[in-house]
Amino acid sequence: xxxxxxxxxxxxxxxxxxxxxxxxxxxxxxxxxxxxxxxxxxxxxxxxxxxxxxxxxxxxxxxxxxxxxxxxxxxxxxxxxxxxxxxxxxxxxxxxxxxxxxxxxxxxxxxxxxxxxxxxxxxxxxxxxxxxxxxxxxxxxxxxxxxxxxxxxxxxxxxxxxxxxxxxxxxxxxxxxxxxxxxxxxxxxxxxxxxxxxxxxxxxxxxxxxxxxxxxxxxxxxxxxxxxxxxxxxxxxxxxxxxxxxxxxxxxxxxxxxxxxxxxxxxxxxxxxxxxxx
Length: 278
Fold this sequence. Notes:
alpha+beta, four-stranded antiparallel β-sheet
């Protein structure tokens, strides 16, 4: 008996797969994995979208539990924390998702064009059928391929407003400003750097005492924020490259690979090699 045929790809899924295979990924993140694995407590720092292309994904956010498969649009609002399980496709052993961050230019334009009160009733994460956004997705993919940044942002703005019409206006709420997020953003630009308190004092324009006090008010400390930002960068690299664990550790400022593995496992609940891309 012959094996069952895979369902035919929709035009937008087929287009995204071609884009992933041929594009440079500068406008999106191509998340891949070769093994089933779970990651705990992943912070979503800005509103973003993701589209599963291969395999399946299970996500828990607070009391919410959602399952995603190819053809689902994964909507995430800024500030949520996720527990995730990614499962590769049984036919080719690959998990593949396109993650599309909604940059501040897109969100600002969407807020101006929306022109209505922003409701906070939508859940932190949502699952929406992708086929309802085919025009916007195809326009965005074409603009990315043509390296037309303005057209790509315009397509994402249109997609965001479409989501707002369906009730997902929570995407437009800007995250509350925090010293922790400003520190994380600085570390994310150069995670390999040997950061010192004086570096942040100079960059943020505040004294060391003020920096420490504000972080204490946010229930954290500078060492923990730096470590968390570096490990978040490492998670991105493990998903988007096939670099060895030692190389990833070095890229995010860890001279000792065993120390990096230990800290990564403590933070995310799995060893780096379990993602399966190295």
